[in-house]
Amino acid sequence: MITIEDFKKKQTNKVRLLGLDLGSKRIGISISDGNQSIATPHKTLDKTTSSKLIDELRLIINENSIKGLIIGNPINMDGTLGKSSHSVNSIASNIEKSLDIPVCLWDERLSTVAAFKLSSQLDTNISKRVKNIDENAATFILQGAIDYLNN
Known about the structure:
The chain has 151 residues and is α/β, with parallel strands linked by helices. The chain has helices at 4-10, 50-64, 83-98, 111-121, 126-150; strands at 16-22, 26-32, 39-46, 66-73, 103-107. The protein has a five-stranded mixed β-sheet, with helices on both faces. Strand 2 and strand 3 (39-46) form a beta hairpin. Helix 4 (111-121) crosses helix 5 (126-150). It is globular, with a radius of gyration of 14 Å.
């Protein structure tokens, strides 16, 4: 896994990036535009086997000309790495070994909460907010990373 600083050195701002929110039950996916200015929700996958996830990611990467992957890292509020973070790190390592694009972890503290609050301000009903929370969290993660990469 590379750091966000190394990721920035390897990327140009004219490529699309993929963002992942690796939840315990579902995986949220978002994609940036080619200029890396806007992240957009793409889809939510049910968490299954690692090989099925890799196959789905390969398909999305090929269909959308993705050149980098940002994965949300659920660091504890005190900055320590807990059980969830260790699990994400393990999955991210498997993804990195299987795909031929740079993979970077991004601190995702409060991304799900922020995505839920933001969607509540958009006058969306609660069932739709819950249904889309994972891909919205992935979008929040990816947007934070591309904002950092652009500054």
